[in-house]
Amino acid sequence: MNNILQFILIGITFLFCVFILVVTQKRKLTYKYTFLWLFFGIVTLLCAIFPNIIIEISKIIHVVEPTNALFLIYIFLIIVIIFYLSLAFSKLVEKVTTLIQENAILSAKVEQLEKKVEEKSKES
Hints:
124 residues; elongated
């Protein structure tokens, strides 16, 4: 790997990890997702610092060009992240549905109680 490209990749990855930590500190990202993105950043950082890792991985998975192996690894990691986020999204949809249903039930009960109170006040 070209030394200039290696330094650029290390710098950008370091800035990415710092950005993730800043966003987490501002409470815009939960710790669960912070660890996920930091893992992605650390993998990138390790590949940038030690390019021989990618060369060895490309030999193991029988990919001729190490850059193609790197893209394959990143595509796999992105698919894992997308799947993980899809699971979290599905859970949130279920929770929102449950909350909407519970809210509707409570609203109906409140309306019933208000009607009873009105009827009792009219009787008095």
